[in-house]
């Protein structure tokens, strides 16, 4: 039998009292409930190490067979951001002028989005997340990845939570189709664009739609133990 690449080691849990647990879950919910999708960014720069730490956090996400099937492309170069904006706006223009259904446009109208994406240039960083459909062995043959979309989706969730925790803002931008990102960022054939997250500080006095979130009753069903 081949030796496991991950020998088992003791797990050291985070020990908390019941009160500490309650306090933490409440605080974390309050923090996450303040998260809003923000589309207007300040010019204020963000240190490179901040982005590095955010990506390390995202990469702690669980993944199918621990393959970590993601690549985070970090774009800070203004000329590359400009090219991404131009290519995204070309696709988005077509989407908003015919590709999206009338119902879809009606659903989006209250959010105030349109084909123009200035945030692709104003945000100090664009994190373009790629999912790796498969990997390559050192000899160049293909090695499969598993639950790729689920794994990368979870990693993006961790990333968005970490961005919030850092006092920064983002939005989940999904220009469609996204294959221009593969070309512009020169990604290999095993990678597919998954999500684009501009990251930075919010613009001064930025406004967001007054959305309400579903109640716990609306989003959960409980199967409690019945008393005997
Ligand atoms: N990808 C487009 C359209 C869009 C779609 C949904 I669903 C949104 O919640 C927001 C936008 C865009 O980025 O504008």
From TrEMBL:
<dbReference type="InterPro" id="IPR000415">
    <property type="entry name" value="Nitroreductase-like"/>
</dbReference>
<keyword id="KW-0285">Flavoprotein</keyword>
<keyword id="KW-0560">Oxidoreductase</keyword>
<dbReference type="InterPro" id="IPR029479">
    <property type="entry name" value="Nitroreductase"/>
</dbReference>
<keyword id="KW-0288">FMN</keyword>
<feature type="domain" description="Nitroreductase">
    <location>
        <begin position="34"/>
        <end position="201"/>
    </location>
</feature>
<dbReference type="InterPro" id="IPR050627">
    <property type="entry name" value="Nitroreductase/BluB"/>
</dbReference>
<dbReference type="Pfam" id="PF00881">
    <property type="entry name" value="Nitroreductase"/>
</dbReference>
<protein>
    <submittedName>
        <fullName>Nitroreductase family protein</fullName>
    </submittedName>
</protein>
């Amino acid at each position: 039998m081949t030796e496991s690449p991950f020998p088992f080691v003791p797990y050291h849990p985070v020990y908390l009292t019941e009160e500490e647990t309650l306090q933490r879950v409440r605080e974390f919910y309050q923090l996450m409930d303040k998260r809003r999708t923000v589309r207007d960014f300040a010019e204020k720069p963000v240190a490179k190490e901040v982005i590095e730490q955010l990506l390390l956090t995202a990469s702690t996400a669980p993944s199918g067979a621990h393959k970590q099937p993601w690549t985070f492309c970090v774009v800070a170069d203004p000329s590359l951001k400009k090219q991404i904006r131009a290519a995204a706006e070309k696709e988005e223009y077509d989407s908003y002028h015919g590709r999206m259904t009338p119902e879809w446009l009606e659903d989006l109208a209250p959010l105030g989005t349109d084909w123009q994406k200035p945030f692709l240039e104003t945000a100090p960083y664009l994190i373009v997340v790629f999912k790796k459909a498969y990997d390559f062995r050192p000899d160049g043959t293909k090695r499969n990845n598993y639950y790729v979309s689920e794994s990368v989706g979870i990693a993006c969730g961790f990333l968005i939570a970490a961005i919030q925790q850092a006092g920064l803002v983002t939005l989940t931008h999904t220009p469609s189709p996204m294959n221009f990102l593969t070309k512009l960022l020169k990604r290999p054939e095993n990678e597919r664009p998954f999500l684009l997250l501009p990251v930075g500080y919010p613009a001064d006095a930025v406004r967001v739609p007054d959305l309400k979130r579903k109640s716990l009753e609306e989003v959960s069903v409980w199967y409690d133990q019945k008393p005997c």
